[in-house]
Design goal:
heterodimer; A: 157 residues; alpha+beta; Ubiquitin-like (UB roll); DNA polymerase, domain 1; 2 domains; 5 helices; 5 strands; B: 756 residues; Aldehyde Oxidoreductase, domain 3; Aldehyde Oxidoreductase, domain 4; 3 domains; five-stranded mixed β-sheet; 19 helices; 28 strands; 24% strand
Chain lengths: 157, 756
């Protein structure tokens, strides 16, 4: 076991971790942040995506002990206090949610994209979701949701 | 009462639990933790077929943190069929058997305090095997002299269905076409892997939490396996991260239940993705032969269809798939003489089961492919050719089964219009005459699907409604929602009929202990049957509410309407009582507003879809780009457009993969090649074409508010349409799915980019 402090959703979490513990394992099994899903554990599906210093990454492939000092945002940290984030609202409104298992990872990828590119083209959105697999929606309404969220976020500015 | 008075129906409505899903708060089974919970793991067979001669688990059992190791000696002796619908047909499976029948078959199970300990324990179990001959192709397994996988022999039960006089039909034909098709097993690839959490209480009650499309079927099977009465088994599906047919059959449940009973501790088994790919159920791999006779006019006179289904190691849903596809064979084309012959055969590979379309994507791929080739030979366009042979609305099929208001002709006509079919065909022709680097292709396909299990088995669903003291409502339903919106639609129907807003209706679902019986998420029956039951229960509740309101307002019931959470005078809406007052009044009079009702099917109306696809085929690399896609469906009256569109989009994603990239490949030893999700080659967001979906404004008189099904129909014509587009672009009829780029390159004339 070694000590590491992870900054998760704006809060410092001092932890004892094994060398081989992934961030996904720590989130789900140690911190009970089960919104981040395990779909493959092999860097293929994107259900476990989190933001690490603003960039969407698969938490199944990150070792927790290497993340001291990084700012980590999980799906539980996306809402604004008690209110849903516009990306979350757009996913609901556009009908982008079916079974919901890929949804947290999709929203994280969308957040990573929109934070750096507030006005993406449809192609850029599809590209940003390339590493998120969905078996329910054909991605159509997910892409529509991200476009809608981008519009709402720009209107907030 | 069939008009949309309250504006709930017809309006795009997100799934009920969407806000829990977008915040990550919805608890799926793998998110659940119980005090004292152990981790269960399974040891899988490395051989395609073998006898287990011995198991020595002594070292594993001695490992600290291991609570139980189980194998064939611990398994109950009752053979079962893990598919709920077919649970009484050819029960072949044991929780653990002395014989393993595919690479990935269950050999032993371990319950331990951590996943690491459980995995270490698996490595300590010593198993000696005696390898046996194995068969990966159903035709080999069906050959005389093949070693039987099960006592009943390798051929399960052949299905033979026919109509008309086949010989006469072929005699009337001007030309006869015969071709063979090969389709692979497909992995469902729900993003949530299989998982179950079993608890065996001190009261002798087994509770199993599992993402399930069929909680009642699973309870029935678990009762049979463990010899427990059903009142001592509770199966609950709290949430499901995708199903597509893959979460109908028992997979991990019998093992977690056995381990829970053995240890007295809760046991959770979550499949790793590689285990899920290797050992969960699949779509049936099939070998299909189609022989069709046609007149020069394009009229089909006879069609003879023979299919070998690769059932995999156990019986599962195979017999139902064989029968169901047989039924569909008769449902679209008014061909006067037809024969369907299915030969379902055990093979040494993972169990094939239900998957979206239930045998129909294979069937309609083969038919639409051959018809595409025939149309070209007759110098007709496929749309016109099929149109000549389609049934009309309210026809009966050639075996006398009514089709309902089947609008396939309108689907095709509208699809052609939206797609610009004529000009797409001209573009294709130009591309063929003057080929550049990219060949342009356009393809279409049409298919039907049912809306319930009517005609196959009794198909019922019960719904209970309870009005709470404040006038809010709780709906209890056994209908499994995979994320497709079946429960959402039930609430919409209740809300529409009772004038109670959606947010004031709670949904208790898929819990064998609290909800009425439902057949399970088979046969695209969510809207038709689950919705039908919601309407019936809501109508009962409506009568009860109107009685209270009529007393309170002193008006006859016929003069009242239910809207905006009130009952009001139709002519003087300012004269009303709230649902809370109604509920309170009922309690004052010592009455409780609680109803239960059920819907039993009296018809199996046929839905339909026509898909149109544009592709570009790269002559240099063989790669296919799907450029655009139009899908037109007849779903009766569209009740929730948002959910309907989502169903079709998802169905198309599956069809694209089926046609071009997916398919489980086995090596010569029967081992799955590629057990990571990336190896399954699901279509990703950038690969998806632009999709345009439209629904006819139609009406099915036996359905809830005119509706019928969509879920499976969404995917049934898809692969066929894509394959036809590729075949048309290349000018060669591909008869094997998926159509990989290597295959395309073989069929293309060599092409080099001109030197610039």
């Amino acid at each position: 076991m070694e000590s590491v402090t992870l900054n998760i959703n704006g809060k410092d979490c001092p932890l004892q971790v094994e060398k081989n513990w992934t961030l996904l394992y720590v989130l789900r099994e140690v911190l009970d942040l089960t919104g981040t899903k395990c779909g493959c554990n092999t860097n293929d599906c994107g259900a476990c995506r989190v933001l690490v210093d603003g960039e969407a990454k698969n938490s199944c492939c990150l070792l927790a002990r290497n993340l001291q000092g990084s700012r980590i945002v999980t799906i539980e940290g996306i809402a604004r206090g008690g209110e849903l984030h516009p990306i979350q609202k757009a996913f609901i409104e556009a009908g982008a949610v079916q079974c919901g298992f890929c949804t947290p990872g999709m929203i994280i990828s969308a957040k990573g994209l929109l934070d750096r590119n507030p006005d993406p083209t449809e192609e850029e959105i599809r590209k940003a979701l390339e590493h998120n697999l969905c078996r329910c929606t054909g991605y159509v309404k997910i892409v529509e949701a991200v476009l809608l969220a981008a519009k709402w976020l720009r209107e907030e500015q | 009462m069939d008009a949309f008075e309250n504006g709930v129906l017809g309006k795009g409505t997100p799934v009920l639990d969407a806000s829990l899903k977008v915040t990550g708060q919805l608890k799926y089974v793998d998110d659940l933790k119980l005090p004292g919970m152990l981790c269960g793991k399974i040891l899988f067979s490395p051989y395609a077929h073998a006898n287990i001669l011995s198991v020595d688990a002594s070292e594993a059992e001695r490992l600290e943190g291991v609570h139980a190791v189980v194998w064939y000696k611990d398994a109950p002796p009752t053979r079962y069929n893990g598919n709920g619908e077919d649970s009484d047909i050819l029960p072949s499976e044991l929780v653990f058997d002395r014989e393993v029948r595919y690479v990935g078959d269950k050999v032993a199970g371990v319950a331990a305090e951590t996943p690491e300990i459980a995995e270490k324990a698996l490595r300590l179990i010593r198993v000696t095997y005696e390898e046996l001959p194995f068969y990966l192709d159903p035709r080999d397994a069906a050959a005389p002299g093949a070693l039987a996988l099960h006592e009943t022999g390798n051929i399960m039960e052949e299905v033979k269905l026919s109509a008309g006089d086949l010989e006469q039909g072929f005699a009337q034909a001007d030309e006869i076409f015969e071709s063979e098709y090969e389709v692979p097993a497909i992995y469902h690839a729900a993003i949530e892997p299989h998982v179950s959490l079993s608890v065996y209480g001190a009261d002798g009650k087994l509770t199993v939490y599992t993402p399930s499309q069929d909680v009642f079927g699973k309870r029935k099977n678990l009762a049979k396996i463990f010899g427990l009465p059903m009142n001592r088994i509770r199966v609950v599906s709290p949430a499901m991260g995708g199903g597509f047919g893959g979460k109908i059959d028992l997979v991990t449940e019998p093992v977690s239940a056995l381990l829970a009973m053995k240890t007295g501790r809760p046991v959770k088994i979550t499949y790793r993705r590689s285990e899920d790919i290797q050992s969960a159920t699949t779509r049936h791999a099939e070998h299909i032969t189609v022989r069709t006779g046609v007149k020069k006019s394009g009229e089909i006179t006879a069609c003879d269809y023979t299919v070998y289904l690769s059932a995999g190691a156990q019986s599962g849903a195979t017999m139902s798939v064989a029968w169901a596809a047989g039924g569909k064979f008769f449902k679209l084309f008014k061909i006067p003489s037809l024969r369907y012959h299915a030969i379902p055969v055990y093979t040494d590979r993972a169990v094939a089961g239900a998957m979206r379309g239930f045998g129909s994507p294979q069937l309609f791929y083969a038919l639409n492919s051959q018809f595409n080739a025939i149309a070209r030979k007759l110098n007709m366009d496929l749309g016109a050719f099929e149109n000549l042979n389609f049934f009309d609305p309210n026809d009966c099929d050639r075996r006398g089964e009514p089709l309902g208001n089947l609008q396939i002709k309108r689907c095709v006509a509208r699809g052609m219009e939206l797609f610009g079919w004529e000009s797409a065909l001209r573009e294709q022709e130009t591309s063929r005459q003057n080929p550049g680097r990219y060949l342009v292709g356009a393809g279409m396909a049409a298919a039907p699907h049912g809306s319930s299990l009517f005609g196959v088995m009794p198909d019922t669903c019960g719904v209970m409604l309870k009005m709470n003291e404040d006038g809010s409502l709780t709906l209890f339903t056994g209908v499994s929602d995979m994320g497709n919106g079946s429960n959402t639609l039930q609430l919409m129907l209740v809300s529409e009929l009772l004038g109670i807003p959606m947010e004031r209706i709670a949904c208790v679902k898929t819990d064998t202990e609290t909800t009425m019986f439902d057949v399970g998420a088979y046969a695209s029956r969510g809207t038709y049957v689950g919705g039908g039951a919601a309407v019936k229960a809501a109508k009962s509740m409506r009568t009860r509410i109107l009685r209270e309101a009529s007393e309170l307002l002193g008006l006859p019931r016929g003069q009242l309407c239910l809207r905006d959470n009130c009952a009001a005078d139709r002519n003087h809406p300012e004269h009303f009582v709230t649902m809370a007052q109604i509920s309170e009044h009922a309690h004052q009079k010592e009455r409780d507003l609680c109803v239960s009702d059920m819907f039993g099917t009296k018809a199996a109306p046929i839905s339909a879809g026509a898909h149109f696809v544009g592709v570009l085929v790269d002559r240099e690399t063989g790669e296919v780009t799907v450029t655009r896609y139009v899908a037109v469906h007849d779903v009766g009256k569209p009740l929730n457009p948002l959910a309907l569109e989502g169903q079709v989009h998802g169905g198309i994603q599956m069809g694209l993969g089926y046609a071009l990239s997916e398919g489980i490949r086995l090596d010569e030893k029967g081992r799955v090649q590629g057990t990571r999700l990336r190896d399954c080659h699901l279509f990703t967001a950038p690969q998806m074409p632009r999709i345009q979906v439209e629904f006819l404004d139609s009406w099915e008189k036996t359905g809830p508010y005119g509706a019928k099904s969509v879920g499976e129909c969404a995917t049934v014509p898809s692969a066929a349409a894509v394959a036809n587009a590729v075949s048309n672009a290349v000018g060669y009829e591909f008869r094997t799915l998926p159509i990989r780029k290597e295959e395309i390159l073989c069929r293309l004339k060599p092409f080099k980019t001109p030197e610039s």
